[in-house]
């Protein structure tokens, strides 16, 4: 009897520790230095961990074999989870209703896997597992993209594989119409908004030891096109986004292919009061400002040398 009581208390303590450790996932932003797509996807799993642990902690006090208990718990989690998403708007984070789906998935995982197997219980388990897919799939894609990017480095992107599109922002697609190498390039559509861009946000390797950032840009128009490239590191994104604290350079594109070659030394020494951190590059953004009409550009063979 004593050993059973001790075991119960140990399990309860572990459940409480699990709940406490998962609280930051609700109200704390991911540190910028760790905010890779994979880490972000794993961070979102904290909702599942918290509510699974919550059910586990409650099951010694509540008989979840009674359907009413499960219904009341589900409604309570739905209400509380919704309120948490609303509260996040006041703590510097955006509320995401996908998080509410994760809350319910964690609750039902704990609820149905703690009970003895039956056809009804297995039905609930299957539903809980299905609810996990919107969370597990981004983790898988982010892990695959990170592995692929690490394997092909110092090539950053050559667009020969769909996975190269992971983490790219803007209105983009792979294209085989114009390319400087291989079978595909990246087609980016630029609009007439004040700022229209294509951004690369997946960087996992240090740029130290390389001499140049190179890529090819194709301008399909008959007139030149002026763009700007900016490169940010972690420290810049943690700061006040000052223009003088990052790398900025104008790109004058003549019609046809333009080979861009930027010395890494210029990138590193671009900030006015410090050196840009080559081991913590966070984004490359190529953008246009107030274009008089919409344009397509093609980018290929983004790499270090």
Keywords:
single chain, 305 residues, alpha+beta, Jelly Rolls, 2 domains, six-stranded antiparallel sheet, five-stranded antiparallel sheet, 11 strands
List the helices and strands and how they pair.
Layout: H1 2-22, H2 24-27, H3 37-44, H4 46-58, H5 67-88, H6 97-113, H7 119-152, E1 155-157, E2 168-169, E3 171-175, E4 185-190, E5 195-200, E6 212-219, E7 225-233, H8 234-238, E8 247-253, E9 256-263, H9 264-268, E10 281-289, E11 295-304
Antiparallel strand pairs: 1-11, 2-5, 3-4, 4-11, 5-10, 6-9, 6-11, 7-8, 7-10
Task: Provide structural commentary.
The protein has nine helices and eleven strands. By secondary structure, it is an alpha+beta fold. The strands form two sheets. Strands 1, 3, 4, 6, 9 and 11 form a six-stranded antiparallel sheet that branches. Helix 1 (2-22) packs antiparallel against helix 4 (46-58), helix 5 (67-88) packs antiparallel against helix 6 and helix 6 crosses helix 7. The radius of gyration is 25 Å and the shape is elongated.
Which shape, going by the Cα principal axes? elongated
Structural class by SSE content: alpha+beta
Give the C-alpha Rg: 25 Å
Helical stretch tally: 9
Written as H for each helix and E for each strand, in order along the chain, the element string is: HHHHHHHEEEEEEEHEEHEE
- Name the poorly predicted regions: none
* Termini Cα gap: 69 Å
CATH topology name of the largest domain, in short, is Jelly Rolls
What can be said about the biggest beta sheet? 6 strands, antiparallel
CATH superfamily of the largest domain: Galactose-binding lectin
CATH architecture of the largest domain: Sandwich
How many domains make up the 3D coordinates? 2
The CATH class of the largest domain is identified as Mainly Beta
Strand-residue proportion: 15-25%
According to DSSP, the number of beta strands is 11
Percentage of residues in helical conformation: 40-55%
Give the overall average pLDDT.
82
